[in-house]
Amino acid sequence: MAHSSFFQSSQIAYVVFVCLLLILQLKGGVGTSSPGDAALKIKYDVFVSFRGPDVRRGFLGHLVDALSRKKIHAFVDDNIEVGDEIPKSLVGAIQASLISLVILSPNYASSHWCLEELAKIVECRENDGQFVLPVFFDVDPSDVRYQKGSYADAFVKLEERYDLVKIQRWRTALQKTANLSGLTSTKHGNDNGLLEEIIKNVKKILNHDQKYISEGLIGIGKSIALLESELNPELEDVRVFGIWGMGGLGKTTLAWEVFNSVRSQYEGSCFLRNVRENSAREGIISLKNKLYSELIGEDLKIDGSNGLPQFVEKRLGRMKVIIVLDDVSDFQQLKILFGTREHFGSSSRIIVTSRDKQVLHTEVDSTYQVKPLHFDESLRLFNLIAFKQKQHLEMEFHEQSKKVIEYAKGIPLVLQVLGHHLHGKRKEIWESLLEKLKSMPSKEVHDVMKLSYDDLDRDEKKIFLDIASFFKGLNLEENDVKLLLKDQGSETIRSITTKLLLLKKLQLSPHVFSKMSKLQFLDFYSKGPCYLPHDGGSLYLPEGLESFPDELRFLRWAYYPMEALPAQFSAENLIVLSLPNSRVKKLWHQEQNLGSLRMIGLQCSTQLTELPDFSNATNVKVIDLRSSSKLIHIHPSVFSLEKLTDLDLSNCISLTSLTSDTHHLRSLRYLSLHGCTALMEFSVTSMNMVSLNLDHTGIKQLPPLFGNQRKLEKLSLVNSTIECLPESIKHLLRLRSLDLRHCRELQTLPELPPNIEKLNVQGCISLKTVLFPVTAAEQMKEERKKVSFWNCLALDKHTLEAIGLNAQINIMKFAYQDLSRYETDGFLAHQATYVYPGSEVPEWLFYRRTNGDHITIDVPFDSIFSDQLGFIFAFIVPEVESEGLFLNFSISGGGNDADEGKSFKLRLDRPRQRIASDHVYLMYDAACSNYLNSRAKSQSQPWLEINVSVASQYTQLLLKGIGVMVGNAAQYHSFLQQMKWLGTTSDTLFDQPIYRRTRAMDSDTCEPLYQTRYPELGNFYGTRGLFPEQGHGWRGCHLCSVPTTTQS
């Protein structure tokens, strides 16, 4: 109990310390650790990753024996690979190993299993600091690094089966592994020599920690080994490494130990300490002279910051050097000190330490974060210093030591200061010091904290102090706030925050803030959306308001009662201005210095009619004017704001135009004009636009430069009067969502970019024509997941046929991709739908029924127990007059599932109003396929009866048709090849008679006419759909057996 109360009071007293950690985390300067993190539960010394056929016979056996003789506990999985998914036990073994020994053999990359192992190993290295030792067994390291030779051949095959994200992950893992220091079999005369070197390296890594512990350096051994591996002298390019973390964590110590252990391998070396401090004292040019004098071995006089004397460049260019630049605080220091990599000879290495990760971004090849010590490491370090390895004292003072460890937050320098401070002291002195630390740290600890505080820039120091004061002010009760506002406070007040509801119609003096000259945070907030009714609390200023304190940084005042901000108020320091539901008509009447302002929020300010000139608000990022219903004009200065990212003008119903003739915004990413019903003119574009909402507007066309917004991901024009979309829309290759619901004037849809996943054209009653890419190969590039043409009844016949074929390509592609993901990821969680007007089940679905609520399909027993099957459905949904949001499907497979309540429930979207005619609803649902797979496997007969029922709201519907297609992932490669082949032919999808898919019969061959006239297309467009029938592919029937698949 005492232990708990100590830390509760300590946390309150040390809010400053917490704030410092918060600011450093924002800068990227400190990690976190906890007692439970201490050394992940290591079960194995070594995890061995290998390609069985390459090394299983001979070498692997000798390696296992050698590890065993040396008492090195290794995990070696000698099972034959089965399936695509790595067993969880294997992943667990990787995570529970101190070292991963990766044997990169000629056929290693031909196994996706090996590549998945390697990706996990690299992940453990980067996240947990696992050591990785690559062994290049009969393969050149450059072949691995750049995927050449047998590795290139392997990836040609992998790319046919796996998606690009997975491929790139594997390539990156190989490159990162090959960049590490490793062993190459060709440098040893035989396997015995290589085995000896492997054992030697493994033992060295295992002994690293013990070596440094004996020297008093706790928790550093693994970090040193990792960095030494990164240096990899085998790589000939000049490499730069960054070490970063907050002050006091041991970056300098780590860099020195690495430097000291490898410097003998280099022709020149220099450890330049305290660059930050010494450059301020001596000047950066002095440090530059010191650096190059030490590397060259003679006194140099370099006068300028740019470049080096020619003779120095020539000499350095022939030398392999190692340099450490310690405690760099500014990118300019790096630029002056080492200039360019071309100055140094091949295989040179440069290590830079810094408290600020941002300093390292542009110059380094990789970074290593020094994190606080784990609890066990902290305790070991503290005990070493405080008790000098006297175990009886460690036990006697254990509880007090734990309090110190919690206080020090894993920072070695703080642990050392406190350890030396308490060494040899009696228990009463320990208790006394710990009590003092509750309210004030010792001078030495203060100095350690000051290391990181001094690292903050001016603005960050201000933020730190503001946050600290803000947290100190959080404990004010309702009565305290009222008393404070009535008595007008004092200059000691830094922050006031309270829920408006608590203040109950409090009247304030016009001088309420006059004594609070240091007030920086003022927050009178109200919960809930601004358009909801007021929650009851309010503040009144019957005599007006004289001013706010000029120090104010954060101002949020819901239901602000004045028509403008006080005339005497200077907004120079204001960062956030939020006045939701205010009575403001105009923010201010005089010019303001707004250089600090970042965010403006005036949502639901229904009296606001105009905005002031924001020309000097150069740092504003967000402007929120939602539901400012009387706003009729946006000041042109808004379009000159180079950092503005978010502009929300939704439901500004008096706004008639938003145009910018002189400024093409660069920074704007999110623009919403939703509900601006009077808006007729719109010409704003931005090269960084991500999301654009023009719902319920009166615009008829998009700006001429619309197609230049290449980063646009989401475009919504719901219920707008848009008449056409520009052809340039197809160039928006990042567009993921296009919502055109109820665009009643839209007549033609141009060719769209392939990356759109969600396309909603519901209720476009004038839409006649939809254009698609002309070849199947081009349509295969599309990524459609959800396409809706509900109630688009004006579509012409040609367009409906094109839509049907596009639906087939997209839904089949999606199903195959999902099945491929299932093989690698082991789970299914995806769905694709495609809806368009129509009354017939598409012919490529081999099992079809024109009425009824069930359909029977063949169960492919040759693959059901080895493959995951995918089920594509087509439902012919009838006209529905009633309203509703969803179609609720119940799908059962065989037996009495439906009666027993075990059916699969599926909810699919529908138009909210009526469904005006029959529609084809194509659907692939991964979870549904999973359910039907399990039902198929439980059947004793070679068929499966699928029952389907559907209701809209509470109204049961009778489907006018059901179609099913069943298949597995084995044919995905064949499908892609068919698409690629079509892309090489002179025919297009819209040539006759291919496109019309005539079902006329040839009496001699019992095949469709176009199959005899165009045999090269027969397998693609025939009654077998996109694939010929094979042993375990998409299941279909020959034309002669159509009656067995078309049920009634």
Explain this structure to me?
- The chain is of the alpha/beta class and 1048 residues long.
- 34% of the residues lie in helices and 17% in strands.
- The chain has a 19-stranded mixed β-sheet, sandwiched between helices.
- Strand 37 and strand 38 form a beta hairpin.
- Helix 4 (59-69) packs parallel to helix 10.
- The chain is globular, with a radius of gyration of 35 Å.
Brief descriptors of the model:
19-stranded mixed β-sheet; five-stranded parallel β-sheet; 42 strands; 1048 residues; alpha/beta; single chain; 17% strand; 34% helix
Q: How many individual β-strands?
A: 42
- Overall outline: globular
Average pLDDT: 79
Count the helices. How many?
Answer: 33
Beta percentage is 15-25%
Distance between the termini: 76 Å
**Strand-pairing-aware structural class:** alpha/beta
CA radius of gyration is: 35 Å
Q: Into which percent range does the helicity of residues fall?
A: 25-40%
Largest sheet: 19 strands, mixed
Low-pLDDT regions = 1-18, 20-40, 469-473, 824-828, 984-1046
